[in-house]
């Protein structure tokens, strides 16, 4: 029997190119973390996944698939969203020249991801790009209620 806590597990799912992709992606991340009793912060993972997926739906042409990849690592989790647009996301890895307008919907999500993830970035893929973030595993004693 393999050790289920240290075997890296990954989920990969194609998402609809619509607003429905966001709740589907959140549910998948929640299920993936719960399945392995994973210790990364599920609320943060869901929040950041929702931002990435919403971004991908908004900025890519309709009809093209978006894929969500969730990888569970011994040290945390990594979530990737693959979309067909090769253009890198503007604010993810380098701060913009001017601060984004907080009332502008699109500037906020990437700042949130930069602030809350342990690392994040993007890379080109054969069919477009993947945008990813990592969250660290939280030690069990820090998670228990006071």
The unreliable regions are 1-6
Give the termini distance in whole angstroms: 35 Å
Amount of beta strand: 25-35%
Question: How many beta strands in the DSSP annotation?
Answer: 5
- Give the oligomeric state: single chain
Strand order of the largest sheet: 1-2-3-5-4
Please provide the ordered H/E string of secondary-structure elements. EHHEEHEEH
Question: What general form does the structure show?
Answer: globular
Structural class estimated from helices and strands: alpha+beta
| Count of helical stretches | 4
What is the makeup of the main sheet?
5 strands, antiparallel
Mean pLDDT: 80
Helical content band: 25-40%
Descriptive overview:
34% of the residues lie in helices and 27% in strands. The protein is built from 4 helices and 5 strands; from the N terminus they run βααββαββα. The protein has a 5-stranded antiparallel beta sheet with strand order 1-2-3-5-4. α1 packs antiparallel against α2. It is globular and about 40 Å long.
């Amino acid at each position: 029997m393999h050790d289920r806590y240290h075997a890296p597990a990954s989920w990969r799912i194609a998402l609809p190119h619509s607003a429905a992709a966001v709740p589907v992606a959140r549910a998948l991340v929640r299920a993936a973390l719960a399945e392995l009793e994973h210790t990364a912060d599920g609320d943060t993972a869901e929040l950041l996944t929702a931002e990435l997926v919403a971004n991908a739906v908004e900025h890519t042409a309709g009809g093209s698939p978006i894929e969500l990849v969730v990888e569970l690592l011994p040290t945390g989790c990594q979530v990737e969203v693959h979309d067909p647009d090769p253009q890198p996301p503007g604010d993810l890895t380098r701060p913009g020249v001017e601060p984004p307008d907080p009332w502008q919907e699109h500037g906020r999500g990437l700042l949130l991801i930069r602030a809350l993830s342990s690392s994040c970035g993007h890379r080109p893929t054969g069919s477009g790009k993947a945008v990813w973030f990592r969250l660290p595993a939280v030690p069990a004693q820090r998670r228990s209620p006071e």
